[in-house]
# Entry
Amino acid sequence: MSKAEIAGYVERAWKESILSELTEYIRIPNKSPAFDREWRTHGHIDRVAERFADWARRQPIRGMQVEIVRLENRTPLIFIDIPGAGGDTVLLYGHMDKQPEMTGWREGLSPWNPVIEGDRLYGRGASDDGYAIFACLSAIGALEAANIPHARCVVIIESCEESGSFDLPHYIEHLAERIGRPSLVIALDSGCGDYERLWCTTSLRGLAGGVLKVAVLTEGVHSGGAGGIVPESFRIARMLLSRIENERTGKILGREFYAPIPAARKREAKQAAKILGRAFGKLPFAGTTKPLAASPAELILNRTWRPALAIIGAEGIPPAANAGNVLRPSTTLSLSLRLPPTADAKAASRKLKLAIEKNPPYGARVAFKGNWSAQGWNAPALAPWLEKSLDAASRGCFGRPAAYMGEGGTIPFMAMLGERFPKAQFLITGVLGPGSNAHGANEFLHIPAAKKLTCCVAGVIADHASRKSD
# Structure
């Protein structure tokens, strides 16, 4: 395969249409349905689906069929079917919905205003995961332009991933016959340790979470009159959190929240730590805040194979500038508990609810409503052809060998596909590298990494078509 020819095609595609399409995509506030309950009325998700599908139809890919599939009361899904040689199928995945705005964007940046600074395209969603459809189709288009054979390719772009992909199983069932049985799955919604090589994700954490509400009064009262009589709702919430987390160490309590770490994943963590060194834990720490471990390998395992709790939202607590001297009637906290890849997410969710609601302190009204439950995923062993292909692609496009590491996030689609297609091989990768800050402020897409990753995808699809055996 002519690497220069593939790279040239991808470069032209970015120059002629991809960069402009992504900048326009950033402007659209197509938040996932969990963050925009009125998404149907607002129409932003449908607008992106139509725009992406229109771009796809303009690509010079032979025999390609592009369809926006719509099931009743569900977010739309883009389904693309591309004929190929042989009887195999490659399934490529991405999503087009976005996380909410988040605060803290630096001056000159905002979630819905695209800004290019050097190699970076700033704005919500370009790296998570708007670039995916463009990477998928430009990789396949490059192969066709170079007359390089590929298997049949099916591309799925969903619009519910940031809400836990609750619509996706219905689409997978609806499209099961049209999808077929892929022997290779490529997902472009993951991370990378740096922007200097192809990073292959070997595991993804699961997720359990929900909303905890503690109520002690029916209305707020003067803190001078109630203080010392009424138990403070935030303190009760803090006591309940201590049932699932050691507040001094951050260690999660309860066997349901753990799973054994395979020896192979420990070896990968050590190797990734050698590549990344202390740069792995280089996050925007405030003041003298330190990471939870000194060893980069332990930090990698903490992030990929151990549970961790985050309080991602709160209600009932007014802004400090508007805080009256009142003992508040209630405190509401939104909890996100990351789980090891092989932990049972449903069992963990049940444990979480039971631990929080059992025997509430002071008889306070305590309720926990679960709204997140997603199974993690642990990749099957790589077939020899794929391991060789990944390394060749990384060396050819980045000039360095491929690297392997688990990721701390969740892609619900992977667990679903792992169960449905147990014999499939997986390439899970992405461009969410250092500083890219998906979900947070100042999110950016590293443009050169996205281009090189696209070329890697093209190489792997070509090798899949020419492999002699699995």
Summary: The chain is about 35% helix and 20% strand.
